[in-house]
Amino acid sequence: MRRFLKTVRWMLSSALMASLSVAYAQADYPNRPIKIIVPYAAGGGADQVTRLVGQRLGDRLKQSIVIENRGGGSNTVGMAMVAKAPADGYTLGLVTPTFLMTQSTMKNHPYDTIKDFSAVAMFGDAPLFLAISSTLPVNNLKEFIQYARARPGQLNWASGGTASTQGLAGLMFSAMADIKTTQVQYRGSSQAMPDLLSGRVQFMFNPLPSVVVHVKSGRLKVLGVASTEKVSAHPDIPVIADTVPGFSTAGWFGLVAPAGTPTAIVDRLNREIGEILRNPETRNAMIESGLEPKIMSPAELGRMISSDFAKYVKIFNEEGIKPE
């Protein structure tokens, strides 16, 4: 009996110490650099917004935020690294709608999109803009559609693959505008940009941050935004649906952690990012680059991810798109 009680006391003591150790680790968080994996090549819109928020997050947490670009596999290379990382808050992942599409389009998918991640925070909406090479002799959307219809199969457009907001936007636009075009797939928008600038591909749907500098230089033209309303920072850019009725698609940027990351850590990150997005300087920087800051709780982001995931599964099933 004495040995039994001693064993019980030892087990309770061990459990208490383990619990205190976890609590201390959470209270001490972060005590080393935090890595955010961006599953895109450096230089694109996802990379830019992550670095903008990441720098400010590092200032608030008083720790280094390391941005690691791991493009490839339509996001799955980078996001598989996040899914397999320790659930301790030191490895996070940047997600976009593409994150929710790949499970429907890829065989041997390396993770479960819903079960293997915890929602952390939303950064903001990223309206997609139709950008064309300035080598094309057109100045507005109607002229562009007429130009494309007169050259069936001759225009190429850049995307991150069918399982991307760019891919869906390009396919939907070509179908709804009644133009015949060819999709050219890249690992990221930064890799597609040289070909768009040179005219090797003629158009691309993309968030404004990665194209705005080239618009200002005159090397690209933006013909419209794929949202249902004009963007507040760029009211001069027309809504594509005014010319192509019913056309709209959206992008967004958010942050996730490996499933099982302690709630206290997730909530801390969410609070800090919320304060960053409320900061007028940060908000203005995002809005001027074509992003609309949006604050969500982890629960709200989790519900949005689950809802959009189900929506994309349905769309791909209805379109007969099978995993390859």
Give an overview of the whole structure:
It is a single chain. With 324 residues, this protein is α/β, with parallel strands linked by helices. It folds into two domains: 33-125 and 251-318, Bordetella uptake gene, domain 1 (D-Maltodextrin-Binding Protein, domain 2), CATH 3.40.190; 128-242, Periplasmic binding protein-like II (D-Maltodextrin-Binding Protein, domain 2, 3-Layer(aba) Sandwich), CATH 3.40.190. Helices cover 44% and strands 19% of the residues. It has helices at residues 2-27, 45-61, 76-84, 98-105, 141-149, 165-176, 189-198, 212-217, 263-278, 280-288, 298-318, and strands at residues 34-38, 65-69, 91-95, 117-125, 128-133, 155-159, 181-185, 203-207, 220-225, 252-258, 292-293. Helix 2 (45-61) links the parallel strand 1 and strand 2. Helix 2 (45-61) crosses helix 9 (263-278) and helix 4 packs parallel to helix 11. The protein is globular.
Low-confidence stretches: 14-25
- Measured by DSSP, the beta-strand proportion falls in 15-25%
Largest sheet: 6 strands, mixed
Assign an overall shape. globular
Q: What is the number of independent domains?
A: 2
Number of helices: 11
Q: Within the CATH hierarchy, at the fold level, what is the topology of the largest domain?
A: D-Maltodextrin-Binding Protein, domain 2
**The CATH top-level class label of the largest domain:** Alpha Beta
The CATH architecture of the largest domain would be 3-Layer(aba) Sandwich
Instruction: Give the spatial strand order of the biggest sheet.
Output: 2-1-3-10-4-11
CATH superfamily of the largest domain: Bordetella uptake gene, domain 1
* Helicity level: 40-55%
Radius of gyration: 22 Å
Structural class: alpha/beta
H/E order of the elements?
HEHEHEHEEHEHEHEHEEHHEH
